[in-house]
Amino acid sequence: TAGITQAPTSQILAAGRSMTLRCTQDMRHNAMYWYRQDLGLGLRLIHYSNTAGTTGKGEVPDGYSVSRANTDDFPLTLASAVPSQTSVYFCASSDSHSTDTQYFGPGTRLTVL
Amino acid sequence: EDKVVQSPLSLVVHEGDTVTLNCSYEVTNFRSLLWYKQEKKAPTFLFMLTSSGIEKKSGRLSSILDKKELFSILNITATQTGDSAVYLCAVGLIQGAQKLVFGQGTRLTINP
């Protein structure tokens, strides 16, 4: 089973360009999340979605947008990338009817120059 | 501000040693505490704790929560090189959404 997939695996992006990170899950989980992971800062929540059609802001939402058109997909868009958005991005999902346990995708390493 | 602090940030031990990793938290509306293991890529789930004093165990790993003193520990006995990883602690909050607040992680290195 695939679980959660993310694409691309890594990307180098020029500052000012836009980029969409893709995330797809096949577990029919209601809730999905985007985190960034930076050295010394741990995982920080960017945006989340409790169910298809709804989204919410996390701890560090500025410069990012998300959409949740269906249960399986939760893309993260950087409209105009800046070097401070260089990070590893993880998508996660959870079954809102069970527990807080979140399952993570393999991550996307993004470098903004 | 909700905060989760892990200690130590880094730990190097020899194979066979026992280690204890610490996680303390200051949050409003605590619901659960979770431990994850992160090797090269995605964090993988280890334990979720919701009640004080009840130990959760999986093989050589165990964890316990103290909701009065606001901390949890993760124990690994008879460590192996495959236990080398970053261990992440996260707290789940009652906020209408299942948000997790993560600590910085403890980087554990097991030397043969």
Distance between the termini of chain B: 41 Å
The count of β-strands of chain B is: 11
Query: What pair of chains forms the biggest interface?
Result: A-B, 26 and 24 residues
Number of strand elements of chain A: 11
The largest sheet of chain A, given as strand count, sense and whether it forms a barrel, is: 7 strands, mixed
Judged by helices, strands and strand pairing, the structural class of chain B is mainly beta
Compute the separation of the termini of chain A in Å: 36 Å
> What's the Cα radius of gyration of chain B?
14 Å
Q: Mean pLDDT score of chain A, rounded?
A: 93
Count of separate DSSP helical elements of chain B: 0
- The SSE order of chain B reads EEEEEEEEEEE
Shape of chain B: globular
Number of distinct helices of chain A: 0
- In N-to-C order, the SSE pattern of chain A is EEEEEEEEEEE
Helix fraction of chain B by DSSP (H/I, runs of at least 4)? under 10%
Structural class of chain A: mainly beta
Shape of chain A: globular
Question: Could you explain the architecture of this structure?
Answer:
- The complex is a heterodimer of chains A (about 110) and B (about 110).
- Chain A has about 110 residues and is an all-beta fold.
- Helices cover about 0% and strands about 50% of the residues of chain A.
- The termini of chain A are far apart.
- Chain B is mainly β and about 110 residues long.
- Chain B has no helices and eleven strands.
- In chain B, strands 2, 4, 5, 9, 10 and 11 form a six-stranded mixed β-sheet that branches. A five-stranded antiparallel β-sheet of chain B has the order 1-3-8-7-6, with no helix packed on it.
- Chain B starts with a strand and ends with a strand.
- Classes of the chains: A mainly beta (about 110), B mainly beta (about 110).
- Chains A and B meet through β4, β5 and β10 of A and β4, β5, β9 and β10 of B.
